[in-house]
Specification:
With 113 residues, the chain is an all-beta fold. The chain is 0% helix and 53% strand.
């Protein structure tokens, strides 16, 4: 069985894309799963949801459940499936409900201030 650990992420975390701050939170969660990089999950209340569009894309994780995706619209481009959330996560990871994580890359950063 995979052991997933969720804890409060220390400090203030931000998400930036296309020169804009999409999220800033002191209440982010850090999810650790063996074999994967740690992932920061941001509470929806701390995200500028106007920049996120629902995506038809979805995936399934046997440990967390079904993930819904979001594309991020910036001034210059759309970052497809750059954010994801578990709307109905499994009980073991229930703390990530109503949180969104983001895929870091050339045009999107997740960092601790």
């Amino acid at each position: 069985m995979t052991t997933i650990t969720i804890r409060k992420a220390g400090g203030t975390w931000v998400v930036r894309a296309g020169g804009a701050v999409l999220a800033e939170s002191k209440n982010a969660l850090e999810l650790s799963e063996p074999g994967y990089d740690d992932v920061i999950y941001f509470p929806r209340d701390d995200i500028a949801m106007a920049f996120l569009d629902d995506s038809p894309h979805s995936t399934h994780c046997p440990h967390k459940g079904d993930a819904s995706y979001f594309s991020i619209v910036t001034k210059s481009q759309t970052l497809k499936n750059a954010g994801w959330s578990y709307e109905n996560p499994k009980d073991a990871v229930a703390r990530i409900k109503d949180h969104i994580a983001f895929t870091q890359g050339e045009y999107l950063t997740v960092e601790r201030l």
